[in-house]
Amino acid sequence: MFSLSESLEGCNTPESKLILLIDLFLEKKIDTEDFCDQYEQIWNFQLDEGMLSADRAQLMSDLFDVVTWYTSIIEDRLIYPGFKNEQQVFVAAKETREKLVKNLA
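Above: the chain sequence. Below: its structure as tokens.
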């Protein structure tokens, strides 16, 4: 049985945890709610942005901005268009991952 907490324990750095979260989410091994909750927790309480290059920090910060506006409540998204849905989070995660790969090249 898949365990997110066990998977994250195997990561050495907060950055590697964030990248693993993105990969697990894109592989649909975790749902949007878990992805957003964990990404926000790691970003806010474990990561020091100074540990990242400026480009990587910006990419991951941009994803954080989408993650923090996610809500599963349709009515909230109708009232306030700033909230993000599952598809918007997925697209943002995919774009971030693709840019991170290019950033490594």
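Helices lie at 4-9, 14-26, 32-45, 54-67, 74-79, 86-104.
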